[in-house]
Design brief:
The chain is built from 25 helices and 3 strands. By secondary structure, it is mostly helical. The protein is 68% helix and 1% strand.
């Protein structure tokens, strides 16, 4: 194109010399030059109508033409002006075309001169930037000239400039390194410093290490501040102001607040800041700084290095590995401090602060998950949240267990009070009931009310604990609806670990009262065994189902993982109730049996005097049996009895005085017929119904009393079989057995059982009597009625 333009210029110049002179004349005229090329000094025209003058006024010029010229002259003037404009435009285009190469050459030379000027001024410019600490501008200026200086470094002038620039940039790099090492600058300045050093070809790995080392020092100071907030547990004198354990019994408790867990009275052994303030400080200081470090590091060494001349150096892979190791190490230390602080939260009074703290902790870790995908840090944080919630559930379970055991202690204290009103009778400390006037006005409560208060207080405590634990599943808690938390926490944490384990604890701890007692009943009051058996039976019939249904509804438990069926817990509760009731029967039977054993073993039955009264121990047996009957009737239903005969109270006498019994006694009296007597007795036993003394009892009063009386009379029988009797000894046994028959038949399900055992006692006494002479039935009746 330039050749074509040159050709056109040459043709124009050779073809029309007059035109060439005219164009040159126009240029001289335009620039105000004379023939010698010097500017002509002409006086400026002040006429506003001079179209070539500097003061030309178009409006004034047109007005003058309209006044002085006719229409034809105006038209001619217009035509002339148009021709001049076109001619001028043509001359200007021709001028440009003719001088195009010269314009281009002049522009390239000007640019080159500017570059050369920039190069020659570069050392001074760099020194000025270094003086003003305009490091970024200095690096950019040097990068612009670096390639040119390297290319022409063989030229002495350029070599000198290059050496000067290298010396200045080395000094600048040293200042940047010093600034980087000092660490007093802000994160933004630090990032700029690293970026400039990378542009100066500093080793990327070394810069990564220095950057992370500087960031570590700042983050470690945050961790040290958090660690200072954690203090060891206070010593024993530090908690001397803890309120003393309540001494009031459950029987006198007025509200569920009186039955709160004892552990809630203990202060949480923490520092001056609570758990929420601690987590807030950790999130606002450490986690925020860590996120800023991650973002800055990624921008400098990973994102920025993936483009430009750094992309081929594999910097992102190296930098990413160092970043993950750095974050994992510091996060592990932070998590350790968080877990230590969470472990200090031992009090179970208020759960809201812990839940809010865990929620804030979980929220802030999500920022780390977004900044650093693939990092194990967020998952480890989630594990801390899950462990904290699980540990909280364990603390609540321990509080419930402690509450239950303390409640049983209060029940024992209530039972040990001198007089506990039981519907017309009073409970003594040993658990036996003694007849006497009711003192309900002064007594704190009755036995059924004691059971109701115990059951209600336990149930209220469970509800209170469930309400506290439910805070973990609130809708505004971020981790509550996460699949890794809610399903497992609700089913295995709350339902199984808390509720189910507490129900099992109630059953197991209740059964332990049966295992700790010795042959004489141990230190456990029998009435406590009776109370616990009824409590476990109520759990089996209704309470367990209610508690688990309440839990499932409140926590929306999804039974994806295996859970304990309600039937299994009910069976365990019924088993505990059965064992407790059986043990109650055994203990009460052994108490009465002990009285009967002592009464038989401490008496000389051969040389005793003729009976005139019923022995006092038999009256005590009847009194205690009556008291036990009242006691059991307060907690258990009556039960089913067989029909009684009309003369049940006198049946012993009629049996003993029957012709068959007289024949048995008469035969036994004759010394020549002992074999016949034993034979008749053994034949009689063969056809008698076998009595199982220690069989399980049913959950009703009649079955319980039958079991106690069987144990008592069987003991009486075995003691009699080990003694030798005289005439009056046999008669005393007759009187005692008739007295027992008068009262005991009404307590059992089948009166024939009492008749059979008492008949065996009298027969055994007769077989072991040296002078068997039975007392007349009428005399026995008189003595018993008088007794």
């Amino acid at each position: 194109m330039d050749a074509e333009a040159d050709g056109l210029v040459e043709v124009s110049e050779d073809g029309d010399p007059s035109r060439r002179r005219r164009v040159h004349g126009m240029l001289k005229l335009y620039y105000g030059l004379n023939e010698e090329g010097k500017a002509e000094e002409e006086q400026e025209s002040l006429d506003p109508c001079d179209i070539n003058g500097p003061h030309f006024d178009p409006e004034h010029y047109l007005n003058k033409l309209r006044r002085e010229c006719s229409l034809a002259e105006l038209m001619d003037q217009e035509t002339c002006m148009v021709k001049q404009i076109r001619s001028l435009d043509s001359d200007m285009q021709t001028l440009v075309y003719e001088n195009y190469n010269k314009f281009i050459s002049a522009t390239g030379v000007h640019t080159l001169l500017r570059k050369l000027q920039f190069l020659f001024e570069l050392p001074a410019r760099l020194n000025k930037c270094l003086e003003l600490q305009a490091y970024a501008q200095a690096v950019n200026s040097h990068r612009r000239a670096r390639c040119v200086l390297r290319q022409y470094s063989h030229l002495p002038s350029f070599k000198g400039i290059q050496d000067d620039c290298h010396a200045i940039m080395d000094k600048l790099a040293q200042e940047l390194r010093q600034k980087f090492r000092d660490g007093g600058s802000s994160a933004k300045d630090l990032a700029q410093c690293v970026e400039l050093l990378l542009q100066l070809d500093e080793p990327a790995e070394e810069l990564c290490d220095k950057f992370l080392s500087h960031a570590r020092s700042r983050l470690e100071s945050d961790l040290q501040g958090l660690e200072a907030e954690i203090r060891p547990y206070p010593s024993a004198p530090a908690v001397k102001d803890v309120p003393a354990r309540r001494s009031t019994s459950i029987a006198g408790a007025g509200s569920p607040a009186d039955l709160s867990p004892k552990t809630s009275a203990l202060p949480s052994p923490t520092s001056n800041t609570d758990i929420l303030e601690f987590i807030d400080r950790g999130c606002n200081e450490f986690v925020s700084s860590l996120c800023l470090v991650i973002a800055s590091y990624q921008e400098l060494f990973i994102n920025h290095a993936q483009a430009g001349e750094l992309a081929s150096k594999n910097i992102p892979q190296m930098a990413n590995g160092k970043l993950h190791a750095f974050v994992d190490d510091l996060a592990a230390r932070y998590f350790s401090l968080v877990e230590r602080r969470i472990q200090e939260e031992k009090g179970v009074g208020d759960n809201s602060l812990l839940v809010r703290a865990l929620d804030r902790f979980h929220r802030r870790l999500q920022a780390v998950a977004k900044l650093l995908p693939g990092s194990p840090v967020p998952n480890k944080g989630i594990e801390i949240v899950i462990r904290a919630a699980t540990e909280r559930v364990k603390q609540y379970l321990a509080a419930l267990q402690s509450f239950y055991m303390d409640s049983l202690t209060d029940v024992r204290q209530a039972l040990a009070t001198p007089r506990l009103s039981v519907a017309g009778a009073s409970v003594a400390g040993g658990g036996a009931l003694h007849g006497g006037p009711a003192s309900g006005r002064d007594a704190p409560t009755s036995l059924p009310e004691l059971l109701s208060s115990l059951s209600a207080s336990i149930l209220n405590q469970i509800k209170s604990v469930l309400a506290s634990v439910h805070l973990f599943t609130a809708k505004d808690i971020t981790f509550s609806n996460k699949p890794y938390f809610k399903g497992e926490f609700c089913s295995q944490g709350v339902r199984e670990s808390l509720v189910v384990n507490f129900i099992k604890f109630v059953c197991q701890s209740s059964r332990q009262f049966c295992e700790s007692a010795g042959d004489k009943g141990g230190s456990t009051p029998p009435v406590l065994l009776l109370l616990l058996s009824r409590l476990c039976l109520d759990y089996e019939t209704s309470t367990i189902s209610y508690i688990l249904t309440l839990t499932d509804e409140q926590f929306l438990v999804q039974h994806h993982s295996p859970v304990t069926p309600v039937t299994t817990l009910c069976e365990e509760a019924r088993e505990a109730a059965q064992k407790l009731l059986n043990h109650y029967v055994k203990v009460q039977g052994l108490i009465i049996s002990q009285m009967l054993r002592k009464s038989v073993e401490t008496r000389d039955w051969v040389n005793t005097i003729e009976p005139r009264n019923v022995r006092a121990v038999m009256k005590r047996v009847v009194e205690d049996t009556t008291s036990i009957d009242v006691q059991v009737g307060l907690l258990y239903e009556e039960g089913v009895r067989k029909a009684h005969s009309s003369d049940s109270s006198k049946r012993t006498f009629s049996v003993y005085s029957s012709s068959r019994q007289q024949a048995r006694y008469a035969a036994s009296y004759t010394p020549s017929a002992p074999m016949d007597t034993n034979l008749l007795s053994n034949i009689h036993k063969l056809f008698s119904e076998r009595i199982d003394i220690f069989s399980s009892v049913e959950f009703n009063k009649v079955s319980v009393m039958t079991g106690i009386i069987k144990i008592s009379l069987k003991t009486f029988l075995e003691c009699v079989r080990l003694r030798t009797f005289g005439r009056y000894g046999l008669q005393q046994i007759q009187v005692d057995c008739h007295y027992l028959q008068m009262y005991l038949w009404r307590f059992v399900s089948d009166e024939n059982l009492v008749h059979f055992l008492l008949d065996e006692i009298v027969c055994s006494s007769a077989h072991r009597c040296l002078d068997p002479a039975p007392m007349e039935q009428s005399v026995i009746e008189v003595i018993c009625e008088r007794g």
